[in-house]
Amino acid sequence: MHFRSNYLLLIGFLSLLGSIQNTGAVFAQNQLTHFLYAANNRQAGISQQEAAAIAQRYVNGRILSISRSSSNYRVKILNNKGNIQVVTVSASDGTVLSTR
User: Fold this and answer.
1) What is the pTM of this model?
2) pLDDT band at 12 (very low <50, low <70, confident <90, very high)
3) Between 36 and 56, where is the model more confident?
4) Residue 50: alpha-carbon gap to chain centroid
5) Helix/strand/coil (H, E, C) string of the chain?
6) Distance between CA atoms of 83 and 85, rounded to whole angstroms?
7) For 17, 67, 82, 87, which has the most beta carbons within 10 A of its beta carbon?
Protein backbone atom coordinates (compact mmCIF):
# COMPACT_ATOMS: atom_id res chain seq x y z
CA MET A 1 0.00 0.00 0.00
CA HIS A 2 2.81 2.41 0.89
CA PHE A 3 4.63 1.58 -2.33
CA ARG A 4 1.63 2.58 -4.42
CA SER A 5 1.17 5.91 -2.63
CA ASN A 6 4.90 6.66 -2.83
CA TYR A 7 4.84 5.75 -6.51
CA LEU A 8 1.97 8.17 -7.18
CA LEU A 9 3.75 10.91 -5.25
CA LEU A 10 6.91 10.24 -7.24
CA ILE A 11 5.02 10.47 -10.56
CA GLY A 12 3.52 13.79 -9.47
CA PHE A 13 6.89 15.06 -8.36
CA LEU A 14 8.54 14.02 -11.63
CA SER A 15 5.86 15.80 -13.67
CA LEU A 16 6.46 18.90 -11.56
CA LEU A 17 10.20 18.52 -12.14
CA GLY A 18 9.62 18.46 -15.90
CA SER A 19 7.74 21.76 -15.79
CA ILE A 20 10.39 23.64 -13.79
CA GLN A 21 12.79 25.95 -15.62
CA ASN A 22 16.53 25.20 -15.54
CA THR A 23 17.09 27.65 -12.69
CA GLY A 24 15.03 25.51 -10.31
CA ALA A 25 15.93 22.10 -11.68
CA VAL A 26 18.89 21.53 -9.34
CA PHE A 27 16.74 22.37 -6.32
CA ALA A 28 13.99 20.04 -7.57
CA GLN A 29 16.48 17.21 -8.15
CA ASN A 30 17.80 17.63 -4.59
CA GLN A 31 14.24 17.52 -3.26
CA LEU A 32 13.55 14.37 -5.27
CA THR A 33 16.69 12.69 -3.91
CA HIS A 34 15.69 13.59 -0.35
CA PHE A 35 12.12 12.32 -0.92
CA LEU A 36 13.28 8.98 -2.31
CA TYR A 37 15.81 8.49 0.51
CA ALA A 38 13.21 9.26 3.19
CA ALA A 39 10.56 7.03 1.58
CA ASN A 40 13.01 4.15 1.23
CA ASN A 41 14.14 4.36 4.86
CA ARG A 42 10.57 4.62 6.12
CA GLN A 43 9.60 1.39 4.38
CA ALA A 44 12.73 -0.60 5.12
CA GLY A 45 12.36 -1.04 8.88
CA ILE A 46 13.99 -4.06 10.46
CA SER A 47 14.36 -7.56 9.08
CA GLN A 48 12.83 -10.73 10.46
CA GLN A 49 16.26 -11.81 11.72
CA GLU A 50 16.74 -8.50 13.53
CA ALA A 51 13.31 -8.84 15.16
CA ALA A 52 14.22 -12.36 16.33
CA ALA A 53 17.51 -11.15 17.84
CA ILE A 54 15.75 -8.27 19.62
CA ALA A 55 13.08 -10.61 21.02
CA GLN A 56 15.72 -13.04 22.29
CA ARG A 57 17.37 -10.24 24.26
CA TYR A 58 14.13 -10.02 26.25
CA VAL A 59 13.30 -13.73 26.48
CA ASN A 60 15.99 -16.40 26.48
CA GLY A 61 14.91 -19.49 24.62
CA ARG A 62 14.21 -21.09 21.27
CA ILE A 63 12.26 -19.23 18.62
CA LEU A 64 9.18 -21.18 17.55
CA SER A 65 7.76 -18.79 14.97
CA ILE A 66 7.83 -15.25 13.64
CA SER A 67 4.95 -13.54 11.88
CA ARG A 68 4.67 -10.02 10.57
CA SER A 69 1.73 -7.68 10.34
CA SER A 70 1.96 -4.30 8.64
CA SER A 71 3.46 -2.63 11.69
CA ASN A 72 5.08 -5.29 13.87
CA TYR A 73 6.59 -8.73 14.26
CA ARG A 74 5.11 -11.32 16.62
CA VAL A 75 7.86 -13.64 17.88
CA LYS A 76 6.91 -16.83 19.75
CA ILE A 77 9.68 -18.16 21.99
CA LEU A 78 9.86 -21.32 24.08
CA ASN A 79 11.66 -20.05 27.17
CA ASN A 80 14.12 -22.03 29.28
CA LYS A 81 11.36 -22.96 31.76
CA GLY A 82 9.26 -24.58 29.02
CA ASN A 83 6.70 -21.78 28.70
CA ILE A 84 5.76 -20.06 25.45
CA GLN A 85 6.16 -16.29 25.44
CA VAL A 86 5.19 -13.86 22.72
CA VAL A 87 7.28 -10.75 22.08
CA THR A 88 5.86 -8.02 19.86
CA VAL A 89 8.54 -5.96 18.10
CA SER A 90 7.94 -2.81 16.04
CA ALA A 91 8.77 -3.52 12.39
CA SER A 92 9.75 0.09 11.78
CA ASP A 93 12.33 0.67 14.51
CA GLY A 94 12.79 -2.55 16.55
CA THR A 95 11.18 -1.29 19.74
CA VAL A 96 9.75 -4.05 21.95
CA LEU A 97 6.06 -3.23 22.26
CA SER A 98 5.02 -6.04 24.58
CA THR A 99 5.96 -9.39 26.08
CA ARG A 100 3.47 -11.90 27.38
Assistant:
1) 0.57
2) low
3) 56
4) 12
5) CHHHHHHHHHHHHHHHHHHCCHHHHHHHHHHHHHHHHHHHHHHHCCCHHHHHHHHHHHCCEEEEEEEECCCEEEEEEEECCCCEEEEEEECCCCCEEEEC
6) 6
7) 87
